[in-house]
Predict the structure.
Amino acid sequence: MAESKKRIAVIPGDGIGPEVIREAVAVLERVRETHGVLLELKHFDWGAEKYLSEDVTLPEGALEMLSNEFDAILSGAFGDPRVASNKHAEDILMGMRRGLDLYINLRPVRLMAEHLTPLRDRKVEDIDFVVFRENTEGAYCGAGGFLKKGTPDEIATQEEFNTRRGVERIIVAAFEYARAHNRKRVTMADKSNVQRFGGDLWQRVFKEVAARYPDIEANHQYADAMTMYMVLNPAQYDVIVTNNLFGDIMTDLGAALQGGLGLASSGNIHPGRVSLFEPVHGSAPPLAGKGVANPIGSILTAAMMLEYLGYDAASRAVEEAVRQSILERETTRDLGGTLSTAEAGAAIRARIQNQ
Ligand SMILES: NC(=O)c1ccc[n+]([C@@H]2O[C@H](COP(=O)([O-])OP(=O)(O)OC[C@H]3O[C@@H](n4cnc5c(N)ncnc54)[C@H](O)[C@@H]3O)[C@@H](O)[C@H]2O)c1
């Protein structure tokens, strides 16, 4: 159990962000009582509203403040129909991911109750793996350009970056996680059959790193085949490691396998540094303010953050409370229940116990 008080920056963001983050914060307050978790929360109003009224996205000095004064960040989602450019979301979210060098995007895919998966005849133990998505390079670096834009001869290039350092550290993180969590297998996905250069680097580094972990089985699949196998035989996966683009696609599929975006949690992590935890879903503007958004993605995200901070028992207690609420069908409408966001959050909090 961690001993010193942990400082958490809470950034609810836009749309349904504030509603779901409110429930995640209430869960953190509950584990303060049940598990003696020592947390100090500070809220920040960064998001579309601040951008529109003050022209501020990620405030100056924010990254230094987060690094120096906080242990973790709990964030909602960013995106507002009034900001067509999505500038504030890009500045705030990508700013934190890149600026804090949060190179691991960790996304668990775990089925909590059989009725939630769209796959037929799958048991909870069949869908239980984690995806390590490279989070700072790959195809999402914004490098490229246009030539002869708007003409029939237009050329658009979109570049992908794979650095030796970047590829190695995400693969090492996946193997370290497998070892620490008693997972047997790490599967790397790429398209090295056609993306010859980046793929070649991923292949070489994967083999080198795997040799350092003889206790863990290392295997490889092409990314397109993996999307098929995730549906046909998800039980084969323990830990998946892949690049930014493929990880983005795999984890949306993963979210669907476990019951939908409303349930999916994620961490943007740099081990040993301030790290950012956020639900996978976006700001879902059509749902905002209606009290219908599912708070589970944010609550499981808070549980991930608790584990990162060393509060393992509290983290497990939150997950168990979520599982029980789902099994009792005390959920929001997207999971077939009838509860509001606040009622679903309360149902989970009431089940958090220190065993
Ligand atoms: N990390 C982020 O901040 C992030 C991620 C994705 C999208 N976005 C932004 O969010 C806005 C909306 O994007 P989108 O519609 O493509 O994705 P979205 O995740 O907001 O919504 C996709 C679908 O999932 C449903 N959904 C999402 N979260 C839910 C929840 N908690 N409970 C119940 N249903 C839920 C929505 O109703 C919608 O049908 C855009 O501005 C986009 O840029 C932000």
Residues 16, 20, 77-79, 86, 89, 93, 261-262, 278, 281-285, 287, 293-294, 297, 334 surround nicotinamide-adenine-dinucleotide (CB under 6 Å). Residues 113-260 form a domain with the Isopropylmalate Dehydrogenase fold (CATH 3.40.718.10). The two ends are 15 Å apart (CA to CA).
